[in-house]
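Quick one:
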Amino acid sequence: MLGLALFFYILIILQGVLVPLCFALLIAVLLNPLVNKMMGKGLPKQLSIGIAVTLFFLFLLGLLYFLSAQLVQFSDMWPEIKKQFGSMLQEAQVYISKNFNISFDNQAKWLNKISSGNESVIGKTVGGFFTVAGTFILLPVYTVLFLYYKPLFQNFLLDIFDMAHSEKVAEILTDTRGAIQSYIVGLLIEMVIIAALNSVALMIIGVKYALLLGCIGAILNLVPYVGGIVAIALPVIMATIDGGGWTKPLYVIGAYTLIQLIDNNLIVPKIVSSKVSINALVSMVVVLLGNELWGVSGMFLSIPFIAVVKVIFDHIDELKPWGKLFGVDMPHAGLFGIRLRLIQRFFKHKK
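Output:
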């Protein structure tokens, strides 16, 4: 218990160093097949790594540029949004005052308390921006180094275990790499599909900035379970500000609910969870624990982490029950009943 407490304490205090390393490791695992393919065609190792990493981060920069361009257009509408939001706030205050007997003065006090923390929020936001900027600078460097020194890490993992376990270690490494690659590629495909579905749905409903809100919703959807709920709030707010009563917001909620059902029942099982078979309860708990540990970054990293842990559990006989607990394969009810009765008879006979 003391060791676990120290381990998680170290994870928390070294968050600024470990989070970029973890993301860089995931990117390196994702880009490894591309690097191997280019090396197989005769390109030098350094050039292959450089091309793969450059292409990946150019894609990220292109995505950021697209979102920032959409945000610039969105900012032009900010005065109108502020005005509409002010009128909605006034209506809400009147409603609360009439139905809940809370005076305007008390409501104003609560609003002042909320707004009093704006300075600290702004400070955290600016600090967070520089942290993200610093991380984005370090990520390519870490990724290049992970790809370049990959044989060194592989040999290290093989050397620290006994020769008799080398085959099992190599099998765990192969399965882990395959699970992570499958998961990340599946997430990227899911993000593109959800962005398209969100944007088309919002365009049909007539919500402004449908493309921006659809893409933001797809990015938020990468956070398992929690992100999908948060993603609905943004277009609902925009639809409410547009006016026209509650028709548009209800259409948005209906459309996003349908998209979430398609995502959870078709896209995720077929594309994302093809090799990362973690049950919903464990996934949800791990995501929440990741949030407590490393915030939003922890939520993103939690599923790949638990997938690696499950692969390790599945290959070690003493830990296979934990692997089954994390998985999605349900034991047959009849076999479970027979097994339970046999255990009860054994202990009864022993007594």
